[in-house]
User: Fold this.
Amino acid sequence: MLFPILTFILFFGFVVLVFWQKSDSIKKLNRQLLESKVIITKELKDIRCFCFATGKRNHDFRFNKADVYILEDALFIFGYSEFQNLKWYKCLVILTHREDIYKEQFPTAQIPKLYKLNLHSFNQDVFIEFQTTPGIYSNIEIRLENLSLEDKQLIKI
Assistant:
């Protein structure tokens, strides 16, 4: 009777440890961005978003909130899910046309090729669509909700 309980506790602890390590690595990238010499035009915290993935299954893009940093030539999206008032970061998506520069500074970040960007989608949302890996069809759609018109005008990718 004790063995199944211990096995469940160890398995659950292992899963939490894996999620915590992934979240911690994304938090380090967030600190690295804030401490770097890159000029951040606007910082938006706790933005509600909707993510939809088709094709290859990817758990990194299952988040419902994001911290968004708008730079002159890039858009940083730190996606996370909340659990018990804790932020469990899932991934960092960098949308830019200068992939080589940001790939050097943030090697573990997702820097996809932008497929579609609609700043004035229905319900005043920002609609972003991209593919994660060429060859394996994996289409990701992110909809950032309730951004002001001023914030939308700052996005220049």
Observations:
- The first strand starts at residue 40 and ends at 55.
- Strands lie at 40-55, 65-71, 74-83, 86-96, 113-118, 126-131, 138-144.
- The mean pLDDT is 88.
